[in-house]
């Protein structure tokens, strides 16, 4: 499967290098992404007007793709505001304080709860469900907001999503591409997911504790005017609304129960991904309306709109710097053809996937190199920030390597899946980890920087383990 690489491929690769370098140096990447979009548009259309128009159209495409995440975050923020101002949030988290008594217990407790939740209906709805409940507890016992975001992110978008053992969306894509049963890929992924999860989370926790002790920790908060924590869920004392203790206690029980019913509905109705997110979002809207009407009475109609405006302002404020970056990376997939036409070679599946195929076609075929190649290819295909667009490619390349080697198809397929999901599913690419960052009120770029070393170390160790399993 030979793909001819055009200048467009190499320009895209050069800009990926620039962007990754700026991310590591904690510099803003918006301008370089806009220049990259312009350069790709100029190569594709060979006209100044086409390349300039491509910038705007790529922004529109990225906004459309991200709108579901923007909406769920905005709605949950709006709901969280009214829960905080009525004191219901405090009543909800009170029973959890006896379990999360220290920063360490808060980190691992939030992570494990997030992992279990994410297994059942994927991480983004999971972050929305548990963030409002657990973040205040974590901050209260001394865990930084960025530490809580790391826990939700690594355990949810990393461990849970890379295995995806309940919904099975990820293993089905890779298994189909590799011509294997889903069960064999899931079985092969278990040791890899365990190793990757343990190494990454333990490393992240150790680095966090070390930096806090040395005074070099930066929390990367993005909200302003909320006192010492800056979190989106920080209490707003000046706008407290009174409810009777009985009403608060009743609502504190009823609200988690409604979200638990959502989980049951997801099982019964087989909802997943966007459908699961929509169910959570709709439930949050009903909770927002009901609580606002109870708390504000005659002003309930106007206050409902006011809370929604607060939520949308926050959502778009957080996504403002993210959309240009996402727009560039979406051009690595199907967005390029949609925006600029069929410029790529015959048989191309997008710039990113073409680069992955080219990489796989220029390395010797043996177990060790096969494992390294699948990790690198998986990571590259994850750079578009979806995590899922390239895992079919990982499955097909794993099949090629396994055929040449004579064994290890399931292990190589699972390794490519783990690498693609960890990189693109929401631990390293800033716009992909927006849910956890937004709920905790921290910078997605700072969260990506914090995750970088632990995830790369974890990928290295997991690749070595896979070499022995092939």
Q: What's a quick, concise take on this entry?
A:
It comes from Paenibacillus ferrarius. The chain is mainly alpha-helical and 470 residues long.
Task: Explain how this protein is built.
- With 470 residues, the chain is an all-alpha fold.
- It has one domain (7-216, 242-469).
- Helix content is 75%, strand content 0%.
- It has 20 helices and no strands.
- Helix 7 (145-163) packs antiparallel against helix 18, helix 8 (169-178) crosses helix 17 and helix 17 runs antiparallel to helix 18 (409-427).
- It is globular and about 70 Å long.
- The chain starts with 6 loop residues before the first helix and ends with a helix.
- Residues 224-238 have low confidence and may be disordered.
Seen as an oligomer or otherwise, the chain set is single chain
Helix content: over 70%
Order of helices and strands: HHHHHHHHHHHHHHHHHHHH
Cα distance, first to last residue? 23 Å
Structural class: mainly alpha
Question: Which properties best describe this structure?
Answer:
470 residues; mainly alpha; 20 helices
What is the secondary structure topology, with strand pairs?
Elements: H1 7-24, H2 30-45, H3 48-86, H4 88-93, H5 103-121, H6 123-140, H7 145-163, H8 169-178, H9 182-214, H10 245-269, H11 274-296, H12 300-319, H13 323-330, H14 335-340, H15 351-360, H16 367-381, H17 391-405, H18 409-427, H19 434-440, H20 444-469
Keywords: Membrane, Transmembrane, Transmembrane helix
Transmembrane segments: 6-24, 31-60, 66-84, 104-121, 127-143, 150-168, 188-208, 250-270, 276-295, 307-331, 368-388, 400-422, 428-445, 452-469
Protein name: Transporter
